[in-house]
Amino acid sequence: MLNEIETSSFVEIARRDMATSQQLPTSIRDALNTIFTKPSNAQHYRKKIICQKSTGEKQNKHPIIKGRRHCVRNILIIWYLLGGNTKKTKCFLQDYAQKKAFEETLTELVDLTTKQYLEFFCFGVVRDKVQTVIECLKSPEFDLFTQKLPTPFSVSSENSSDIYPILQIHSQDIPWEYYMQQYQLAEKHVEERTFEQAKKILSDLEAEAIIRLPIVEALNRKIVAEELEAKEAWDYFQKILN
């Protein structure tokens, strides 16, 4: 039987996927339990995920079929993009498992990219990234239950998890509007080429932020590039004069 199932539970897999050794936030844990353990509106997709032969064993009541651990990560991504709506996630998984049309759900994913603009913007989630996820889901060559969906987030080389922002979002209340206001102020200084003021705002924002903000990192890189370009232009001008 052990050769037929993953040795880790779906909760343990989720924690590894999000690179944390801590207990998952209640919202994530409850969603996973509902999606993976509750049979209501789940009979089709659970057959693709849960090893029915060993259901009920004490060490792992709902074991994942061997080779299908990526579905945990994928489901977390879909659940997140659907605004943390567990019911809609289960309905999508049912349709996907039965190869039914799910265009309505995919359209909703795009719509939510606009509705969750502040959050998505701060994390570097843009329509292009969501569209890449959608194209995979629509592709007959992609299998949601065995292959990995692309991440909808900007990935940090400092963190080994490309879906870690899901954990961050559900671990605390985040002042999205304040982050956006400070970012836009810094961006205005960049446009005016008052780089020192922009760097000060971004530095303070990074120090205050309770999460990593990819947009801040990107704007900092832009400032460095523009300062370097300005210095090279000045050095060239001085060289001509001399």
What does this structure look like?
- The chain is an all-alpha fold.
- Helices cover 60% and strands 0% of the residues.
- The chain has twelve helices and no strands.
- It has helices spanning 10-17, 26-37, 43-49, 70-81, 86-97, 103-115, 117-122, 127-138, 164-169, 176-191, 195-208, 214-241.
- Helix 2 runs parallel beside helix 5 (86-97), helix 3 (43-49) crosses helix 5 and helix 11 packs antiparallel against helix 12.
- The protein starts with 9 loop residues before the first helix and ends with a helix.
Mean of pLDDT: 85
Q: What characterizes the major β-sheet?
A: none
**Which regions are unreliable across 5 or more consecutive residues at pLDDT < 50?**
none
Element string (H = helix, E = strand):
HHHHHHHHHHHH
Distance between the termini: 80 Å
- The number of E-state strands comes to 0
The 3D shape can be described as elongated
Percentage beta strand:
under 5%
Using the CA coordinates, give the radius of gyration.
Answer: 22 Å
Provide the helix percentage. 55-70%
Class of secondary structure makeup: mainly alpha
Counting H and I runs of at least 4 residues, what is the number of helices? 12
Summarize the structure.
Helix content is 60%, strand content 0%. The protein has 242 residues and is mainly alpha-helical.
Fold topology:
Elements lengths: L9 H8 L8 H12 L5 H7 L20 H12 L4 H12 L5 H13 L1 H6 L4 H12 L25 H6 L6 H16 L3 H14 L5 H28 L1
Short descriptors:
12 helices, 0% strand, 242 residues
